[in-house]
Design a protein that fits this description.
By secondary structure, the chain is α/β, with parallel strands linked by helices. It has helices at 20-40, 42-45, 49-55, 73-80, 92-101, 137-146, 166-178, 198-208, 226-236, 239-245, 249-263; strands at 63-67, 84-89, 106-109, 122-128, 148-159, 211-224, 267-268, 271-284. Strands 1, 2, 3, 4, 5, 6, 7 and 8 form an eight-stranded mixed sheet that branches. Helix 1 runs parallel beside helix 5 (92-101), helix 6 (137-146) packs across helix 8 and helix 7 (166-178) crosses helix 11 (249-263). It is globular and about 55 Å long.
Length: 288
């Protein structure tokens, strides 16, 4: 096989925006922030891992591709189930961390939008919070379908809307309240929470060619000291963290004051208990 899409995998979503600069920005940020993300975000992203692997049918003997593997959190859980794991990520930093975390896996740097992998190579493809970091998420989903075997399963997660996903919502509301705009050196990307709307997420998979598409909510809480979560988000996230970090000290102080006010209702002693909400979409590849 030459890796080109087969007819059942033709991408039917009209592409009206080009986000190549955004993709380059994301890759650069992950190269810089991969270590901090690995240290600080495992407890948050772990919320969806078991549900993600269950939805993709990952078990002993499954050939699974972890798209946007990051520090290898999902890859490690899949390997613990006895799966054969391949992981790709755009950042060399992330690939190195994942290799150290999952020595039995095979990891390489590659874009989720153009997988250097043959058609029909995997039983399952998973992507935990990766689609919102792609300039063209529809391409990522189409590529995931292309490398699936007939009747293979794909599963993906994204963050829910800020109003319910308070771990990020408090930052976005603090920034909006401060009335700041993204700096000119931060390229515009697709709306971060667009796929948190279940209908849009399901449509993305269906238009790529997935069948039996299902949507499921994932919910939990994060218990953390407010200053620790502020620091973790600023140091680890490409869009939100870099936006705040590029502001003047006075503006950053204003955003921090607004953040503190927003997390105050969730206080439990010295910590806050912030609601975490995500959306899981899964589907089946048609028979070739």
């Amino acid at each position: 096989m030459d890796g080109r899409p087969r007819s059942r995998h033709v991408h039917r979503v009209a592409m009206t925006e080009t986000y190549d600069e955004f993709n380059a920005f994301e890759r650069s940020m992950w190269e810089q922030r991969g270590g901090a993300y690995a240290d600080r975000f495992e407890a948050v992203t772990a919320l969806t891992i078991d549900a993600l692997l269950d939805a993709a049918g990952v078990h002993d003997g499954t050939d699974v591709l972890d798209v946007g593997t990051g520090p290898g959190f999902v890859a490690a859980a899949a390997a613990a189930r006895g799966a054969t794991v391949t992981g790709i990520d755009v950042a060399d930093t992330m690939v190195e961390i994942a290799r150290a975390r999952v020595p039995t896996g095979e990891f390489r740097r590659a874009s989720a939008e153009a997988l250097p992998l043959p058609d029909g190579a995997f039983d399952a493809v998973v992507g935990n919070f990766v689609l919102l970091h792609l300039g063209h998420p529809a391409r990522g989903v189409a590529e995931a379908l292309r490398v699936l075997r007939g009747r293979g399963r794909g599963a993906f997660t994204v963050w829910d809307a800020p109003a319910v996903n308070r771990i990020l919502g408090v930052f976005h509301e603090a920034v909006a309240g401060a009335g700041i705009a993204p700096p000119p050196d931060v390229p515009t990307g697709p709306p971060m929470f667009a796929l948190g709307e279940s209908g849009a997420f399901a449509q993305l998979l269906r238009e790529a060619g997935f069948e039996a598409v299902a949507i499921a909510p994932c919910a939990g809480v994060l218990r953390v000291e407010p200053g620790e979560w502020w620091d973790a988000t600023l140091r680890s996230t490409p869009r939100t963290g870099s936006l705040i970090a590029r502001q003047s000290p006075a503006v950053q102080a204003d955003i921090r004051k607004r953040y503190d006010d927003l997390v105050a209702p969730y206080a439990d002693g010295r910590e806050v208990v912030l609601p975490v909400a995500a959306v899981l979409a899964s589907g089946t590849a048609p028979t070739a």
